[in-house]
Amino acid sequence: MSTTLKPKHVGRNISRLRELRGIKQEALAIAIGVSQQTISNIENSENVDHDKLELIAKELGITVEAIKNFSEDAVFNYFNSFSDNSINQGPIGSHNICNFNPLDKLLEAYEENKKLYERLLEAEKKNK
């Protein structure tokens, strides 16, 4: 049994990262000043010229190292590591727990409005 690692296929990594970013081959080609066919050839190549790799990385908004070390498994593991804590997820973030009763706050606001209305009526009576 062999324990040698298979070399990374940089072109395949570029293709997958481009797809994840929602960028078409043609758009990437225009951005780096080559043809769409050149991008296709790059994505089919196991190794890519360092200068082209830097241009592609810049357009994808990532580093050259991210392209070289990209792993589908790592992406899936990253997203699968989030457990569903939706019960504890509030609009502000996780573990958003109220320290007050919202109904009490509503009643306080109602009472305050009532007092303001009464003061407004008194002010109207004095002005007549």
Tell me the structural class. Answer: mainly alpha
Given the C-alpha coordinates, what overall shape results?
elongated
CATH topology of the largest domain: 434 Repressor (Amino-terminal Domain)
Question: How many structurally independent domains?
Answer: 2
SSE sequence, one letter per element:
HHHHHHH
Quaternary assembly: single chain
Low-pLDDT segments, ≥5 res: none
Strand content: under 5%
Total beta-strand segments: 0
Give the CA-CA distance, first to last residue.
101 Å
- The helix tally amounts to 7
What would the average pLDDT be, to the nearest integer? Answer: 81
The CATH homologous superfamily of the largest domain corresponds to: lambda repressor-like DNA-binding domains
Biggest β-sheet description: none
Kindly provide the radius of gyration, computed on alpha-carbon positions and rounded to a whole number of angstroms.
30 Å
List the helices and strands and how they pair.
Blueprint: H1 10-20, H2 25-32, H3 36-43, H4 50-60, H5 64-68, H6 72-80, H7 102-127
Helix pairs in contact: 2-3
Task: Describe the protein's architecture and organization.
The protein has two domains: 10-79, 434 Repressor (Amino-terminal Domain) (Orthogonal Bundle), CATH 1.10.260.40; 99-127. The protein is built from seven helices and no strands. By secondary structure, it is mainly alpha-helical. It has helices spanning 10-20, 25-32, 36-43, 50-60, 64-68, 72-80, 102-127. The termini are far apart. The mean pLDDT is 81. It is elongated, with a radius of gyration of 30 Å. Pfam families: HTH_3. This is XRE family transcriptional regulator. It comes from Flavobacterium macacae.
